[in-house]
Amino acid sequence: MTESIETDVAIIGAGPAGLFAVFELGLLDIKCHLIDILGKPGGQCSELYPEKPIYDIPGFPEVSAQGLVENLIKQIQPFNPVFHMGEMVERVESLGDAEHPKFRVTTDAGTEVTARCVLIAAGGGSFMPKKPPIPGIDAYEGRSVFYAVRKVEQFRGRRVTIVGGGDSALDWVLNLHPVAERITLIHRRDAFRAAPHSVNAMRELVAAGAMDFILGQVSGLKGEGGQLSALTLRKESGESVDIACDDMLPFFGLTMKLGPIADWGLNLHENLIPADTEKFETSTPGIFAIGDIITYPGKLKLILSGFHEGALAAQKIHRYVYPDKRLVFQYTTSSTSLQKKLGVG
Amino acid sequence: MTKITFKDAAGAARTVEAQDGSTVMETAIRNAVPGIEAECGGACACATCHVYVDDAWTEIVGKPSQMEEDMLDFAFEVRPSSRLSCQIKVAPNLDGLVVTTPAKQG
Questions:
Q1: What is the mean pLDDT of residues A150-157?
Q2: Three-class DSSP category at B14
Q3: Do A165 and B73 touch (CB under 8 A)?
Q4: CATH assignment of A3-127+255-341?
Q5: What is the chain B residue with the closest CA to A218?
Q6: Confidence of residue A270 (pLDDT cuts 50, 70, 90)
């Protein structure tokens, strides 16, 4: 599926910094598309600690991370941002020059966004599946070790071992069970974080002899040429056993990795993007960066810093998007034109 | 001051002073102890501050809560002595505590 879109700014990352940038850009009549690898907006706030209170958002003595995200989404509603969720930006190509920048942003789902400017608000990077530290696992990845299921049919007739105890692990146990020759679930304890109804469904299959559940942790892999033949399991008792298996699907949650950003030709410093503190522009004119992913002298990884950085970046982005328009600084409290944009005038 | 010793997977030990009321994870970060990542900043929302509590201390330190047990599912090489160090509060009765960091955080 290829979708081609034209907009003013492509924002990479829909965490608090990226969301609030939509507001600051929107006040300047700049339209945005947001792209994020997660399934819903909010970044770390929604993915890592939605219920946790945050105490250092100005004007909010206490707000839950999810509550903050919901408020931000409400706040940017007047500007109708378009969200592309569950997609990872793979490429950022320059189509313009330093004076008239233009970029094509392409995601792993084939979405193409052509934009005047790119604003990277990618926080700690992309949330990617955690790789278990099993010796030699790299050799099997993509061939018989998978961290996500793209096509169910690929597992037809295979002996599939699923590792983990959360919803991803249990959902795939149940979804792959009809096609796989045999499903084995491995988990370190006889308790699961997954939804109780999936756990019950799994236990019924085990009781009926239709699949296996083994307590333990995977310690080694056996196979040849990237094709697994067995995995070594350390049981709770300490004894090790081999289990025949064609494919392994480990589900150990997500971790943040810089990912493809490293390939976009930007200067990087210890996996962070250096940005100037006046415009928050990167080493590539027209590509801006704000929030936890950037570094500059005195940088603090605070949500409020990300807000400030977005407001300043918007000023320079305005010059690229509307080169002939003079920008007059205005307050939302007093400007009738800003209030009209917000739908309150 | 309460003292805590962090051993790495290879056995090298560092003893640091810990503030009562803070957590073992915060103590590690404050003292730049390698092997503790604390990706989520102490929200019990990742498993990158995983430690093994020394055998002599497991009873005093206690067992993980339900939420912490759930989060330990994301850690690797989990053992009965595994804890998330952000969930261990420093108190005078932990003076001399020894924990070992795993070869790899989640």
A1: 93
A2: strand
A3: yes
A4: 3.50.50.60
A5: B77
A6: confident
Give percent of chain B with pLDDT exceeding 90: 79
Of A132, A217, A256, the CB nearest to B39: A256
pLDDT for position A2: 59
CB B45 to CB A49 under 8 A? yes
Class of domain B2-100: alpha beta
Q: Which pLDDT does position A3 carry in this prediction? A: 60
Domain A131-252 CATH class label: alpha beta
Domains A3-127+255-341 and A131-252 share a fold: yes
Strands A247-250 and A294-295: unpaired
In this structure, the number of other CB atoms found within 10 A of the CB of residue B18 comes to 23
Instruction: Give B56's DSSP letter.
Output: G
ipTM of model over 0.90: no
CB contact under 8 A, A48 and B46: yes
Of residues A52, A164, A255, nearest to B73 (C-beta): A164
b/e per residue A226-254 (b: at least 16 CB within 10 A): eebebbebbeeeeeeeebebbbbbbbbbb
Return the percentage of chain A with pLDDT > 90, whole number: 87
Per-residue tokens: A197? 């109804």
